[in-house]
């Protein structure tokens, strides 16, 4: 699937990135935990990344929404790197929407 897939491929790739990062320590795919545990968060992050490059604060906001956890124990640099990887991954599946200039 390509850019017309509605971002499905990007969501799957981002969900895998989130599972590897496992910011909440849920261990997707282990001990009965669903392998797609982070899919809702991936969908939110891909949507945000399509509007503008993600920041560590975007990742924190999504985690606070889904897990009531602002990831305060995670270094800013770790979250910023993850945000950058998600932004690039989302761009692979479709163009980012640029804010319109006034």
Account of the 3D structure:
The chain has helices spanning 8-21, 39-51, 56-67, 76-91. Residues 1-5 have low confidence and may be disordered. α3 crosses α4 (76-91). The chain contains 4 helices and no strands.
Task: Furnish the topology, listing elements before pairings.
Blueprint: H1 8-21, H2 39-51, H3 56-67, H4 76-91
Helix pairs in contact: 1-2, 1-4, 2-3, 2-4, 3-4
Number of strands: 0
Low-confidence stretches: 1-5
Major beta sheet summary: none
> How would you classify the helix and strand content by structural class?
mainly alpha
**Mean pLDDT rating:** 86
Output the helix-strand order: HHHH
Helix content: 40-55%
> Which band does the percent of strand residues land in?
under 5%
Please count the helical segments.
4
> What is the terminal separation in angstroms?
35 Å
Radius of gyration using CA atoms only: 14 Å
Q: Tell me, what's the shape?
A: globular
Key attributes of the depicted protein:
102 residues; 0% strand; 54% helix; mainly alpha; 4 helices
């Amino acid at each position: 699937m390509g850019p017309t897939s509605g971002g499905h491929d990007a969501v799957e790739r981002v969900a895998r990135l989130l599972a590897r990062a496992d910011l909440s320590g849920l261990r997707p795919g282990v001990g009965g935990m669903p392998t797609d545990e982070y899919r809702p968060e991936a969908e939110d992050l891909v949507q945000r990344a399509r509007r503008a490059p993600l920041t560590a604060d975007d990742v924190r906001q999504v985690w606070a929404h889904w897990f009531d956890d602002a990831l305060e124990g995670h270094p800013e640099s770790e979250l910023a790197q993850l945000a950058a990887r998600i932004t690039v991954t989302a761009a692979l599946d479709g163009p980012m929407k640029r804010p319109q200039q006034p």
